[in-house]
Amino acid sequence: MSEALTAATLIAKSLKARGTTRVYALCGGHIMPIWMALVNAGIEIIDVRDERSAVYMAHASAAVSGGLGVALVTAGPGVTNAMTGIANAHKSRIPVLILSGLPPRTQENRGALQDMSHIDLVRSITRYAHTIGHAHAVARELDAAIAAALGHGDEPGPAFIDLPVDIQRETVPAALCATEHVAGVARPKTRPGDDDLAAAVKLIAQAQRPVVISGRGANTAPRELAAFLTAARAGYLDTGETKGIVPESHAAHIGAVRGAAMQQADLIITVGRRLDFQLAYGSPAVFGQASLLRIADTAAELSDNRLGDVSLLGDLGLTLAELARRLDAQPHPSDEAWLAGLRGKHAERVAGLLETLESAPSDAAGRMAPNRLLAELKKRLDPQAVIIADGGDSLSFARVALNGRTYLDPGPLGCIGIGPAFAIGAAKAAPGRQVVAVTGDGSFGFTAMELDTAVRHKAACMIVVSNNGSWAIEVRDQMDRFGRAVGTQLQYADYAAMARAFGMKAWRLETAAEIAPALDEAFAALADGEPVLIDAVTSPEPPSSDSKSGLAWVPDHQALEAWDAAERNWLGLS
User: Fold this and answer.
1) How far is CA 8 from CA 69, 142, 485, in A?
2) Are residues 68 and 104 in the same domain?
3) Name one GO molecular function term (predicted).
4) What is the rounded distance in angstroms from the CA atom of residue 426 to the CA atom of residue 407?
5) 3-state secondary structure 300-353
6) Tens-digit pLDDT profile for residues 208-258
7) Would the pTM of this model clear 0.85, i.e. be above it?
8) Do 290 and 413 lie in a common domain?
9) Residues with catalytic annotation?
10) Domain containing 498: what range?
11) Does 184 score more than 80 pLDDT?
12) Are 307 and 395 found together in one domain?
């Protein structure tokens, strides 16, 4: 029989037994029993400067480690501050557990400090949201919340539980503190039926120009995905959700010619990927008459916007491995010349990219082009690096220029401002790996105070600020469409000085000639385990691919102007 524990201690011990080694948190009276219980259980607390950052860090930790991220925030404004982070994890389908507290039950509905219904606020952006009303329920509620976050039977995503502070201090009977309450946390595995697998194999075997597009779910099965690409003789388009999981050397990569691939394919295969705005909602106006095979481990990734001709629901590792086995045993003619041609064009563009980046000229004021900065950064990145791209224009430039084993960005919510917090969470989850966040000066401002957190907790990450003194993508939209810029200009503030004030090593770069020596010093410090910041004054003049494509001004039917025109024509609206 286990010993009786307080509810707070039971939560801490349960998290510890499940493998939780750190929790991202901001202190407060309504969560102090849990806070101290975590410390007593040997769980590291990364104390942050804003609750939104706590959830961002837990998000990045989960994304990098493949496990559960945990955040602890206090009642009232602690929860409301955290909601943007919760919403971002919700849209990105990342398993994060958020714990919070409430005033004692004896003060309920009496106007207590920070008394509000958190559940009503977070229910629409969580997989599970519940207030624990009795100490006896702690273990089972924690089980249920974690299972929901990990996606047992549904999409993974954030789960939220809170409990009054008096319950946190109550004793849970020994019988309810037994180890069975922390067992069996692995996500159940399912497998598609044989008839569905056979239908999928037939669809692939008949295709001449199959193209695979990967998403969130594929992160659990990178080796199986690579083997499936080979067996299916398919072209491959990664996305922001999976960039880097299949090595660039794999012969299926054709991402540099994704427009042609999407238009010319006769079979599109989505693997753990929603058909959201980044994939034109699966519209025939963009994808033509291609057949559609959808493979996912959650039903929601099979039914959004467009149903597949064949759909497979099951564990992606098992499913992809079985499809590859069956395809290897069955000859199927594909258009090898088509794929080889696209692969050749892809390779040409990739080979020419660094030269294009390196030759990007400074503007008339001597401010470096963003691509010039990224070219030098690219040279120094390890293949196993964690890359974080944040902002508007800066994200667009970085997405094209930089590659690493793991790539994180604001995701489908478009939640800019994640850079510093994601970098800290990733650095703590992946010690020994390079962690580099590239962010614009506007987006940096959202969570810039977390530089203090990085220094205090020795989070070895590099934060690169492309400081162009503006919200550049919006400036261009305003000037092109309205003839003037309003509320979109910033200072060329000295963010390096700000970083140094927190005790962080930092470099202020104002010309292209300063980039290489500063990065050499910064990467050396990073390798020694220090957080560092590069503040690079960049030109706001070069247009990013996103600003040129129409993403800034939000066309009516599609995210990109070219897609929108195709959609209007397809609908007969042109």
Assistant:
1) 18, 11, 52
2) yes
3) thiamine pyrophosphate binding
4) 10
5) HHHHCCCCCCEEEECCHHHHHHHHHHHHHCCCCCCCHHHHHHHHHHHHHHHHHH
6) 999 999 999 999 999 999 999 999 999 999 999 999 999 989 999 999 998
7) yes
8) no
9) 474
10) 359-543
11) no
12) no
